[in-house]
């Protein structure tokens, strides 16, 4: 009975800061210009836009600044007023708009105090944002090469069920191909056009007449379905979001064990792709495209010796309260051990071992093989030279012996 009461208290206190022992915050960047347009786009001239293509706009900066202030209020009892690098970790993909979003967000979270004010003319302080090149990043960018993933995705997109679902949009893809002069073959192609048209609408640009037939309604479903395709199978999900989820769960257990200087707040600045992968991988994606600053919250809730995971989500560019998601077979407050058991297929990933191609391990093996080959060639060449020198020596000795015999004769 006591446990039921505890669960009810936690349930109705969905946003009680004092119960949060650790939080992972994963958000999408703010407002940006189109990353890519299409050949017939009347607004494809970059000079028509406030910043270069794919860059964060001033609107996007303000969106994340406001979100940062809101995060400060949400986690006021979890983090200190001054930035503490031992308890707060911020990571971004290696892309301008996500790095800038993280910095704008932190400006809202950590306005300088009297202690940290370093320049009276700039009410801002630098906070570290960590990143690595996308092609080396399996944790957040999720773009590091993994041969088993590539093979599994190839099987997935060539499966009967995938092709049958995609075939529903054949007429749409043909229509888009004709009108954009860009070959549209798949969900990712559709979402690319959909996103461009959506941004142009936000900036009050008049769309071409042909778009009225398909945008936004006819394009919305296939465009938003694209966020499910990167985690289309259990193996794809394991290899795609496993490293990030493993990192987050490890931080949770550090918090449970009260390890000294454990991370209390992890912030990840990513893309709609990142948000879609996490939600779909955990089985809670609702089919709606992630908006600017959409945010996933994975929070560890403590109550005495009991620990629960609460997954919340806000999908809006406006500052709104997130809503708590119900995890499949676990509910809105999922016991930590049950969570790790349910998602063991994801959390237990050994990415380096399972994705040897392109990993430091395989690089070392390849380097070692090349080194052995080089040493083998060097040994062979040395052997040949030694043999040649020995043959020359024997030849000289033979000639000298012959000359000696002839002289004595």
From TrEMBL:
A matching Pfam family: His_Phos_2
GO molecular function, one term: acid phosphatase activity
Ion transport keyword on record: no
Signal peptide (UniProt feature, chain positions): 1-18
EC annotation from Swiss-Prot or TrEMBL: 3.1.3.2
Keywords: Disulfide bond, Glycoprotein, Hydrolase, Membrane, Signal, Transmembrane, Transmembrane helix
Keyword Cell inner membrane: no
Coiled-coil regions, chain positions: none
Catalysed reactions, semicolon-separated: a phosphate monoester + H2O = an alcohol + phosphate
PANTHER family, sorted: ACID PHOSPHATASE-RELATED (PTHR11567), PROSTATIC ACID PHOSPHATASE (PTHR11567:SF211)
Family classification: Belongs to the histidine acid phosphatase family.
Name of the protein this chain belongs to: acid phosphatase
Organism listed in the record: Leptosia nina
């Amino acid at each position: 009975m006591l446990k039921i009461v505890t669960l009810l208290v936690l349930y109705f206190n969905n946003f009680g800061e004092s119960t949060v022992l650790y939080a992972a915050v994963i958000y999408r960047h703010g407002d940006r210009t189109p990353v890519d347009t299409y050949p017939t786009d009347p607004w494809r001239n970059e000079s028509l836009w406030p910043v270069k293509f794919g860059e964060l706009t001033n609107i996007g900066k303000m969106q994340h600044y406001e979100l940062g202030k809101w995060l400060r209020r949400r986690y006021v009892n979890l983090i200190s007023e001054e930035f503490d690098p031992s308890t707060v970790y911020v990571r971004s993909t290696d892309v301008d708009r996500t790095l800038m979003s993280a910095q704008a967000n932190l400006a809202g979270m950590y306005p300088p105090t009297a202690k940290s004010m370093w320049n009276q003319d700039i009410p801002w302080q630098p906070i570290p944002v960590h990143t690595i090149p996308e092609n080396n990043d399996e944790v957040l960018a999720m773009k590091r090469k993994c041969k088993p993933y590539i093979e599994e995705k190839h099987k997935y997109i060539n499966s009967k069920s995938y092709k049958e679902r995609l075939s529903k949009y054949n007429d749409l893809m043909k229509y888009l191909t004709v009108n954009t002069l860009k070959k549209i073959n798949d969900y990712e192609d559709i979402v690319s056009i959909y996103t461009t048209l959506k941004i142009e609408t936000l900036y009050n640009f008049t769309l071409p007449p042909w778009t009225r037939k398909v945008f936004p309604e006819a394009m919305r479903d296939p465009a938003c379905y694209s966020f499910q395709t990167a985690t289309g199978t259990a193996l794809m999900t394991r290899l795609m979001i496993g490293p990030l989820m493993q990192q987050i769960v490890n931080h949770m257990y550090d918090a449970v064990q009260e390890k000294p200087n454990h991370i209390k707040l992890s912030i990840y600045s990513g893309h709609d792709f990142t948000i879609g992968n996490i939600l779909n991988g955990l089985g809670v994606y609702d089919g709606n495209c992630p908006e600017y600053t959409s945010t996933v919250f994975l929070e560890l809730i403590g109550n005495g010796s009991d620990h629960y995971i609460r997954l919340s989500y806000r999908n809006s560019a406006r500052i709104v309260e997130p809503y708590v998601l119900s995890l499949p077979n676990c509910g809105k407050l999922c016991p930590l051990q049950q969570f790790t058991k349910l998602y063991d297929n994801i959390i237990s990933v050994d990415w380096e071992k399972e994705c040897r191609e392109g990993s430091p391990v395989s690089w070392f093996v390849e380097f070692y093989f090349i080194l052995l080959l080089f040493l083998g060639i060097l040994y062979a060449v040395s052997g040949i030279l030694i043999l040649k020198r020995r043959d020359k020596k024997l030849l000289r000795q033979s000639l000298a012996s012959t000359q000696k015999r002839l002289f004595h004769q």
